[in-house]
Amino acid sequence: MATDFKDHFSSHAGQYARSRPTYPAELFDFLVSLTNHHDLAWDCAAGNGQAAVALAGRFARVIATDASAAQVANAAEHPNVTYLVATAEHSGLSHESVDLITVAQALHWFDFPAFFNEADRVLKEGGVLAAWAYEMFHISPALDDIIAEFYSVTLQDYWPPERRHIENGYADIPFSYPLLPTPAFEIKVQWSGEQIAAYLSSWSAVQKFTADRGFNPVERIFDDLRKHANPLNQVVWPLTLKVGRKA
Questions:
Q1: Other CB atoms closer than 10 Å to residue 1's CB: what's the count?
Q2: Which single residue of 60, 75, 104, 112 could bond 51 by disulfide (Cβ 3.0 to 4.6 Å)?
């Protein structure tokens, strides 16, 4: 297989699954409204399976693929979801078999020309391709300042270069189909300071820092997080969403 898989999450797949926020139901309702048929959805780079499970209540079948066997092993089970270990560029799915392709928080890792060719191969005529990512989250001015410095200063040497695609809202990814108009969506959760710290610890840059320096850098800001956090804080991530339809 020619495509190189950049695996930033297998080493902490269990923690990743436990610490990631869930996507709003309205997002999936919107995507379903764009599709003419609801027979098969492909959730590509499915990770912990949260998008796949959400789709399973809306499609007869969902095939969820991830190049990481560890991620697949930690994914949420659902009777309508079939998990497979496969790369985004070589799914193994049948030609023109899929009504909807979703890529949640993963498009920036792909070989863009190879993936878009594969998506075009497996999508039915009129099928929809949707990719989204969540941007930097917001809690409160005090916590936002602490986390912004942690993100940009403490971790500056540990973010992979692909992270820039999330920072600029996927603006420089050459999407394969003309973009459809989309509403604005947000992820909103109520998290304690401990849950915020667990989420930060799941970041790939934190994992790399820990491996390189021998300690988790979240420990150094945990007291500040706890000092400024409420028992439950509203944490909000704006979503970047790109959607196109195969003619």
A1: 9
A2: 104
